[in-house]
């Protein structure tokens, strides 16, 4: 291992020497008397021992490691990155072709168009992304002369094919839109309409908050309508002048009511239900609840129990209210769901309320849900409370009564029980063959689908209609049949003006959020 021996000469013997010459140099006697050398002697004959390499260490602050080990660790990490990390990075950066979204089914497509109809009906200063390019700002001077409404009554929705803003059915529309979102938010999200439908609700509730002093705790009036139309009139108004809302150039008087138990109750229901939709926006939800409480208090005020439309020809012919006890039950239910305040559910389950509302009287027309009759919707809401929360005493007796009435209402939907007439095609004539039949078919189909979903959620397969057991699927089939007929009618009518009126009647009060769930 050393290039030179300290004793002189080379380690290797010249290979040219033969065996004899090598043997001549050996002292045989020495071989015979050979003995082990002691340590000192060995040190003379052998070179110095190999110097051991000292390990080098690296101080990492909290630990000291061998430098060689550290290098092994670094190389191991680098190797792992090359073998594992690098291929992953390359794979993730390879451009990928995005899959196309599946085409919407017919029910989803119908819902898209139904929601878009609300965009077309907007009044006021429209947002740039309204989605209806041929619509512009309109009604910008509505209520401009009202001293107590800053900025006037600008906004809201026009009704049907004219340019009047009827607050009673408008509030009902917002309540139903909110109810559909409360129950089916995930499905709205699945088809990309969740933000859209919430924007439509807010457009309506922002306007409804303008129709009374929503910052006060007590009010003495409620604005009920903007615009008017005289039957067979000869002066410019919203019926005499059949034109675009952007071109309105005639007076648009504002109606107000100092007593409005029905309208006040419906506005309270609209604001309360919307407050649930907007619970992720605490400030706005709180504002809606406050407004709902104020107008609910106004609706329930003693000595002010005259229906809002009575004696007013500007309203009575178009949206006459036949009762207000149904709005009391309806609004109290929504106020309870929005606030959890037991005073509302105590009132809703007070035995005197269903008696005054004739909820348990088995009156056929009271089983039909509409903008004028909220009883079937209210009893379903209260049945929901019993089915999901079951608050028990002291509410159980009344809630059980509402639940029984709801089941009876659902029985009447089936042709086999002959409660209502049906067309040859199968459309239920809930309004006994009078005009605008589609809105009644849609609204009551919505309740049917909801009740089916409620029962399925609590593992109830069906219910009895007398001796006949009706299943959840039976109820869904009825609801689906009505919607199919509605869509078929719209297709058959084509592009006529009548089609536009059909859409107005059927879609204006949207109750189709369940379409894709029942398909």
Topology diagram in text:
Elements: H1 19-24, H2 28-32, H3 39-45, E1 57-59, E2 64-66, H4 67-92, H5 106-120, E3 165-166, H6 167-190, H7 194-208, E4 222-226, E5 254-257, H8 261-277, H9 282-299, H10 313-319, H11 325-339, H12 342-348, H13 352-357, H14 375-388, H15 396-411, H16 437-457, E6 462-465, E7 468-471, H17 472-493, H18 497-507
Antiparallel strand pairs: 1-2, 3-4, 4-5, 6-7
Helix pairs in contact: 6-7, 6-8, 7-8, 8-9, 8-11, 9-11, 11-12, 11-14, 14-15, 14-16, 16-17, 16-18, 17-18
Protein name: cellulase
Keywords: Carbohydrate metabolism, Cellulose degradation, Glycosidase, Hydrolase, Membrane, Polysaccharide degradation, Transmembrane, Transmembrane helix
Transmembrane segments: 69-90
């Amino acid at each position: 291992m050393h290039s030179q021996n300290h004793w002189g000469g080379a380690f290797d013997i010249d290979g040219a020497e033969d065996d004899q010459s090598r043997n001549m140099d050996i002292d045989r006697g020495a071989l015979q008397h050979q003995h082990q050398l002691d340590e000192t002697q060995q040190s003379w004959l052998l070179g110095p021992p190999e110097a051991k390499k000292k390990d080098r260490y690296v101080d990492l602050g909290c630990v000291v490691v061998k430098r060689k080990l550290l290098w092994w660790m670094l190389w191991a990490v680098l190797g792992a990155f090359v073998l594992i990390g690098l291929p992953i990075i390359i794979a993730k950066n390879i451009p990928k072709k995005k899959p196309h979204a599946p085409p919407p089914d017919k029910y989803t497509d119908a819902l898209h168009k139904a929601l878009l109809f609300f965009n077309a009906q907007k009044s006021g200063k429209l947002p740039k992304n309204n989605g209806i390019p041929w619509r512009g700002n309109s009604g910008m001077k509505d209520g401009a002369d009202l001293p107590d409404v800053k900025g006037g009554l600008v906004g809201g929705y026009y009704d049907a094919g004219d340019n009047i803003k009827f607050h009673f059915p408008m509030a009902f529309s917002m309540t139903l839109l909110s109810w559909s979102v409360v129950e089916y938010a995930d499905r709205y999200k699945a088809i990309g309409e969740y933000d859209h439908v919430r924007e439509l609700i807010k457009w309506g509730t922002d306007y409804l908050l303008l129709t009374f002093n929503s910052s006060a705790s007590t009010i003495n009036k409620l604005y009920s309508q903007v615009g008017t139309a005289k039957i067979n009139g000869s002066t410019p108004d919203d019926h005499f002048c059949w034109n675009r809302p952007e071109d309105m150039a005639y007076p648009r008087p504002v109606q107000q009511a100092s007593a409005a138990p029905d309208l006040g109750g419906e506005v309270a229901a609209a604001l309360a239900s919307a407050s649930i939709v907007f619970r992720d926006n605490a400030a706005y939800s709180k504002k809606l609840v406050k407004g709902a409480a104020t107008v609910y208090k106004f609706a329930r005020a003693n000595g002010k129990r005259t229906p809002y439309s009575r004696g007013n020809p500007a309203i009575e012919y178009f949206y006459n209210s036949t009762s207000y006890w149904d709005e009391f039950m309806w609004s109290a239910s929504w106020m309870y769901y929005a606030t959890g305040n037991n005073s509302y559910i105590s009132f809703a389950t007070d035995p005197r309320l269903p008696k005054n509302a004739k909820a348990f009287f088995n009156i056929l027309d009271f089983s039909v849900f509409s903008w004028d009759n909220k009883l079937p919707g209210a009893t379903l809401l209260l049945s929901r409370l019993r089915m999901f929360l079951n608050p028990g005493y002291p509410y159980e007796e009344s809630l059980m009564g509402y639940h029984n009435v709801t089941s009876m209402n659902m029985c009447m939907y089936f042709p086999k029980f002959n409660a209502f007439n049906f067309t040859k095609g199968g459309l239920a004539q809930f309004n006994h063959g009078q005009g605008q039949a589609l809105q009644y078919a849609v609204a009551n189909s919505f309740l049917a689908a909801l009740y089916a979903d409620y029962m399925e959620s609590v593992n109830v397969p069906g219910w009895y209609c007398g001796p006949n057991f009706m299943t959840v699927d039976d109820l869904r089939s009825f609801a689906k049949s009505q919607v199919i007929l509605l869509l078929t009618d719209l297709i058959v009518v084509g592009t006529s003006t009548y089609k536009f009126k059909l859409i107005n009647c059927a879609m204006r009060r949207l109750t189709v959020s369940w379409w894709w769930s029942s398909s």
